[in-house]
Amino acid sequence: MMIYLDCGAELQILRLETGYQLLETLPNGKVRKIGRLHKSIQGVLDEINLFALTEHEILAIEESKDVIKNTCSKVLEYFQLNSEYLAQLEQPSF
Fold first, then answer.
1. Exposure string over 59-76, b if 16+ CB within 10 A, otherwise e
2. Of 32, 50, 71, 89, which sits 20 to 30 A from 4 (CA to CA)?
3. Residues 11-28: pLDDT tens digits?
4. Which of 83, 53, 68 is nearest to 20 (CA)?
5. Model confidence pLDDT, tens digit, residues 32-85
């Protein structure tokens, strides 16, 4: 995922087997790591706030974080409901 900031920075969120890493593409085309390896994409989005963001960019990052959080909670809710449903199917009816 590439993120282009108004300040001219080009950021990339790289998904690795062990987590997520924020990268910055420099003007000469080289890439450098920003910060540490994060276990969740939320941590990477928090790290983007270290840049000089405009209000619009801050709102976009916050909206992305909310969408990810809501999606995760809905997926968790789905699996919990599905587990309860499957547990009831396994119960013998008398």
1. eebeebeeeeeeeeeeee
2. 71
3. 899 999 999 999 999 888
4. 68
5. 998 899 998 888 888 887 776 788 888 888 898 899 899 999 999 999 988 888
The dihedral formed by the CA atoms of 27, 29, 30 and 33, expressed in degrees to the nearest 10: 70
Amino acid at 72: C
* Strand intervals (E) in 5-86: 10-16, 19-25, 31-38
- Give the C-alpha distances (Å, rounded to integers) separating 51 from 2, 41, 45, 48: 15, 17, 11, 6
Percent of the chain with pLDDT over 90: 33
